[in-house]
Amino acid sequence: NAGVTQTPKFQVLKTGQSMTLQCAQDMNHEYMSWYRQDPGMGLRLIHYSVGAGITDQGEVPNGYNVSRSTTEDFPLRLLSAAPSQTSVYFCASTRTEGISPLHFGNGTRLTVT
Amino acid sequence: QQPVQSPQAVILREGEDAVINCSSSKALYSVHWYRQKHGEAPVFLMILLKGGEQKGHEKISASFNEKKQQSSLYLTASQLSYSGTYFCGTEGYGGSQGNLIFGKGTKLSVKP
Question: Which of A90, A102, B41, B67 has the fewest Cβ atoms within 10 angstroms?
């Protein structure tokens, strides 16, 4: 049981480059979300999705795009990377029904130079 | 709006107790607690629902005072394995357990 899988684990970008962080889950969870983690700032919500075709903004959405074409996948796109986007990114998923915790992926460490 | 966690950091000797607090300025439906080891993903500890219920996980328990929008995490007879950063994640009314708002974390260090 893979759970939540994120790729890549590490990435270095130059300012202005674009890239997509991949996230996939095999638990048939409706809810998926992206968080970024910076030292001393905790986990901040970027975007989330309640199901295929539905996305919404979190606390810090600027500079990021998402889409949800399938239940399993929730990619995060950086259109023009900036040094301020240097961070560790976590994807998470959970059920919408009942009481359920967030299941986190192992994270992607992104450095923008 | 991020909940406020206190203290920011705490150092314990094995066997000592600790309390970590989480306060929100908005009405809460639930509070989730996670622990994160360095370089790893956060790991779920427990969920507290409105009603002030106290939940337990080994020697770790928590309470939720919905009137004060506060939750406290109690670590009893701490072990070395308890070291890490603890985060509370809050769910407001109209929100969802899928888009929790997390505090900045409390770093707990347990020494032999």
Answer: B67
